[in-house]
Records
---
Amino acid sequence: MLADFSTLLSDWLLLICRALNACQLRSSWLQMVSDTWVTLMPLSHVQLALGLTFGVDLEKGSQLQSLIKIIGMSHVTSASGYNVGLILNLTRRLTSRFYRFYGLLILLPLVWLYVWLCDFTPSVSRAALMSSLILIAGMCRRQLSVMRALVLTAVLVALVQPQWLGELSFQLSWLATLGIVWWLPMLNVECWLGVNTAEQLRGQSPSWTVAALWRWWWHEFWQNWSATLATQVTTWPLIFEHFQKWPVVTLLANPLLLWLTPTMTLLSGGYLVVTTITQPVLGPMLTDPVWGWWLGWPLRSTIDVFWWGVSSLAKLPFGEVVVSNWRSWHTYCWWMCLYLVWLRWRSFQRHQQLILTPYD
């Protein structure tokens, strides 16, 4: 009966997509945006911006695609759960004054509209489904942990779209989120340097002194590096199994360049809104070389910085590690070891809480 329900639901969703002619509408809209943006910035910048925002594939064999693969940052050029998180955080701030139910009525359609614009890719759909479960639980005044939402998402995907479980993008996205849930608390600044030192690094008050900027930069670098390590620990065995190599330079590239991702994503989203709404009115201004140069300068300059960082890191000699005889049982053994280490860490945390908790 459960299998019949999942089949019926899948057919219903497919029928709706065909009725709305969604794929052709999305393709024509993205083509209009691409044609307009070419007047604002080079074609390579347009491809990166659209890939970063909506998961549009880069041109095969292009220089940017080759360099990004070398440094292991292909996830930046494809829409992922990170984009869903940006949309949720931005919309939550804009709807914070609304009642929780009305805010949810704005958040959920906006998130799934973005999933449709990304052509229902497995990684984005996983993040949207997981976020929807947490939001609905919060509306019902229930607390759903990220770990339970992650497991429940995998169960729902197995019932509705079981073929996604075999997609490498879904597997990497799910494992990366699992790594953040498991390992990021173990790698944070407070754990290794103490709460007082972490507060000093974070900075209590805004200041433009060299020491304050250094502390802010080091804290941000540590946070990005720990998030990178947490995701790589759980995903690199799968990368070894499928590609027989793993880019070591990604441990350096992600902390140094990942802070540009939200800037490029938000700027691309703003340009998309402006381009879509004002195209009938400001079309001649967007296609004018002078006005187009000035209008495209913020996003173009940000992508230039990202391009320079990618090309510089791709020249490093310790680019990747090649393992040609990696097998599936190696991957399972590694994950089992990670699970045992995580259990040990949880028991240590509980022991510390018992010591620090005062007796009544």
---
Amino acid sequence: MKCFIKTVSLILALMLLLSLFGCGEDKKPAFVAEDEYYNIEDENGASGQSDAGNGDSNNTSQGESGNNSQNSGSDSGDDDFEPIEIIERDGFIPKEIPTRKNAYKLSNTMNKLQSGKTVNVVYYGGSVTGGTGSSDPEKKSWRALTTEFLKSQTSGTVNAVNSALGGTGSYLGAARFEQSVLAYDPDLLFIEFAINDKYSDLSVQQSKADIEYMIRKLNAKNPCADIVIVLVTNDSLYGSQYPTYNAHREVADHYGVPIVDFGCELYNKFKGSSESFKKLLSDSVHPNDEGYRAYADIMIAALKEMLVSAPDAPHNMPASKLCKNGFSTLKNHLASTISATGWSCKWWFDNRDYEKEGSQFRYSGDLKAIYPKYLAPDEIGNTITFKFTGNSFGILGTVKEGASLKIVLDGSTEKTVAGVSRSELLEYPVFENLENTSHTVTVTVIGNPPYVAIAAFVTTNP
């Protein structure tokens, strides 16, 4: 009997030791609601415990060392990270940060994260979304850091797709939307094109129509897919609300799509200090590693606000579009399908001029896959006559310095497109807001040399 009691006592003692030293399976929760993984400042400047290196293999740690960061205001994972000094401004008036109180929550994405189902995330935009300026875009861009956060919130798989393309705006974004976004069946889509729409002088009306088309197109395929509109700025637009910025905000508000505004958030954090903001940039617009970390902190804080538990629910679209002259269908008329006497249809890699000088179509795998060939004029003065039915007409391709295109609609309305650089990407909505009837356009090469490449004509219908 005494031997039995001693044996039981020994077993109990061993069990107590095991519980004290934490042996056993360490299961990560499906969703971490508190600041357990990222060090995000609250309104009073207090920060939560950073633990980005914990979790299973689906949660890779931030930074090269993987050590926990205790730096105030950011979890960079870098030992040499120093927070940006905030310069006080007398009489500072905060900018209005786009509110998300009337936007839908990302509960459909949240449900997939919690259940451990595969979540498809697509990042769509320009070079700031791609990560230009970062020392390692696949690890240190806001896109990469946001993906790591999403991975840390699930026991399942997060498939992240980078469909961003530097130097491009929403017009080409709409044209390649099916191949670059819908093909990946996104559960969560980030859209960032406002700044490049500004750079390309895209009209406010066209910018709104493009974003509206993307929202409605994804919703038609998957009504439960979540979307976030992302807004960025540069050193000269810092603190301002430029026209295409407001255009994207208006569309987001109309459809209840949440907005994350990096520039506005940092403007308020830095109390309007442009010096503090510029320290986050590698040039006039692209963040450096520290800047991307700051952008990611803003995005992650917003996601923690938006990822809430609720039953799956489709995002119902308004019956009418915001843009009266917008479009519901878009067609790419590829170079290989356009009949043109005096023009040669070539693969992008066939033309040595384009190979030597560089072309975004020539070097972008995404664009080459969608638009594999182009039309090149055999000589100056050659014309293409093209007929279509629709409410707009545009051109995708390249027009290099010295070359120009004269484009005439229905024998009367004329526009000229001139190349401005040796590798200029052309994504140009030549004629907008047309009557949805039959039209004829003629495209004639003028200027010298005739460095013109037409990848596609783009037409739309309401």
